[in-house]
Amino acid sequence: MRIIIYAIIFLSSLVHLNAQNMTTVAGRIVDANTKVGLPFATIASSVDQSVGTTTDIDGYYSLRLDSKHGNLLAEYLGYASQPIVVDYTSESQEINIELNEDGVTLGEVEIKATRLKYSRKNNPAVELIKKVIAHKDENRMEGQDYYQCNQYEKIEFSLNNFESSTLDKGYLKDLQFLKNHIDTSDLNGKPHLPFYLRERDSDIYYRSQPESRKEFIQAEKETKLDQWLFSQNITTILDNLYQDIDVYNNTIDIFAKSVVSPISSVVGNAFYHYHIIDTLDYDGVDVIELAFMPANKLDLGFKGSLLITNDSTYALVKAEMTLDERANINWISDLRLIQEFEKYGDQWIVSNNILTGDFSIAGSGKGLLGTRSVFYTDYIFNKPSEDKYYNGLVNVIDERTEDKTEEDDTYWNAVRPEDVDYREKEIYAMIDTMKNTPIFKRVANITSLAISGYWDFRTIEMGPVASFYSFNDVEGFKMKLGGATTPLLHPKLRLGGYAAYGFKDKRLKYKGEIEYSLNKNFRENPKTFFKLSHSHDLHIVGQDIDLVNESNLFLSFNRGDASKFVLTDQTKFEFNQELQSDLSYNIYASHKKEIAQGSLKFAAKDIEGNAIEIPDVTTTEVGINIRWAPNESFIQLNGFRKPIFNNAPIIELSYAKGINGILGSGYDYHKITGSLFKRLYLPPVGISDIIIEGGKIIGTGLPYYHLLVPRGNQTYFYKHRTFNMMNFLEFTSDTYFIVNYRHFFNGFIMNRVPLLNKLGLRSVVSFKGVWGQLSQENDPNQNPELLQFVNTADGVPETYTFSSKPYMEASFGIANIFKIARIDIVQRINYLDHPNVQQLFGRKGLGLRLKTEINF
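The chain above was modelled as a monomer; its predicted structure follows.
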């Protein structure tokens, strides 16, 4: 989600989103006689009732607003309303409110001021939610054997808190035409200016046994911001941030978080407190209003209300909720979810849901406003369709055709529901004009540089900037400049590479590659391409050069001895194809020649035990990598992409064949490896990631560092897929097995620690273990003619085989420090007698690691 965070920061700061006089009003609403806090009381702007909030279970509230919203009005059922005067000359103020009873009783529910300690026993609200939960399988759409419907979706992003006076200043004067498009948010009453709009028309097909829900996209229309952000990225981000929401589910996935639903049959009653507020007539339907909020004030949960039919069906008519502002969540200052239901026959089913989020920097009011509106129509129940509408692993299938072009206004006017306003055509035209202005292009270029590390020169992009300067023991100070062509030069052909120079070893290094895509554009997913590359560069021995980039300033700081390098000349040809079934494969042929550098020596022994220098190690290899990742999506950046995890497993299998005698290769082998990744969402406890890896090499007399070498890490930065307290090339084997587990508590622990719960910190724990075996025919200690392990200057071995026990390490981390940093304390559990084992505070195998991570 880092791309959204950077967009917030840069678009906010560069466009000067100046607010009017803003103030934060906070305090408590209590009964005037008993002084007991009034839960779920309303305090809102007297000018605009949509701008407001409700009190928590103890009567406390907090609200941020600007001067145009005027004074406030405090209201509570059964009490006289009270106007409140706000002082907008103060940045913050405390206003405590005492309300007097007016003796009003509505229906059969009487609101009393005296409130006992919350109890789940003999609580009518708890009994009501239990009945809702007991009947939810009958009421939710997924209770049907089959259904299909049409889904219209609109997603809009705006610059938030955007005053028209902003356009009268400096270089923004050329954007006066934007004043006509500034609107007011229903979420918080702030002015906002749209800059991105996407509409999608889809058909939904659902089957209960075996369960399958597919979305077939019929047409899609969106604003094209430019290549700096890539429209496909925005689609991916929005699809992951704004996922389909069903309040009936046990959890609700929202903004990369999994939140307990107020109707969860698993932990809902334990996680939330419920209160019956009123009975009322809602559009001719007799309903009960049930309010809820997290039992623990700092847990990540919703607060809001449910309208439930006052009959034996206990069906939802409407759900309205917000993320509790006390929860430990970043970058979101306001959020509202509204889900409405309509009666079809005897059942209430979802008719629409609207999710609005205010993304801002530290609650400053400057940022982005994002709204997703979804409308469901044309329901058909229990009428099976062809198997093709249910089979397969992909949930979202693009069926757009040329006769449904994004420019067809007639089509879109026909599919838009009546509830959707008709500003869309004007917004598209406004954004097309805005993106061609110099100021927008300037902001776009700077944002692109911050997000991807590349500077965009339209047809060529230069970077990454993080690799421009680095250093190590062999090359000393290293300068590196790289770049690649963009689709504007040629949509199918990508040329890339870099040149680097070490001022200590005085050598030029380089890499060049040619990629030809079989897609219309080489940045499109799923990808299909041919690639030819050649590189001449130094790499840390034992590290996979396709996975690790040592030319990075932050990775230049290493502990212990990090002077063992190989100078590698590698030529590689590959074909990569990603299928619509989310299965992908990569077939390659590689020729590699390596020469020892630094303190590394390639040496064997003769019959008499004398050292024999080996000038180089040359291998020729062919192989295939297969990856299965159901419903995987990516953030595509310059030259690379970052996957976005979901709850589906990721399975990878690889096979490589070393060929002796081809192009000077001296080795023959078979290498088989595999891995499984699975993310588990466990609200309210957090998220767990599990990785299991294993491998086997079949061959004789192979170089030890070409065997299965666990990834060590001698930097001071924490890396998830490495052993952070293991040295480079510390272990080698031709059979191995790895378990890697981490758990993000997302504030579940830190929110319960006094004082620390005010800092918004989060905790994370991990455990990693690896065990392996080295066969006798590949063990240099038993075969002097093989490439020998390297020893320290004192003759102590630095590379080892595993004993009967695995290598293990565990860590505990404090994350969300200033919202961007994390510190882990890592303990190496065993093999402490090896050389160069780090120690901290006199404890061997203990170390601190840093990590930067931006998340919600």
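Residues 679-856 form one domain.
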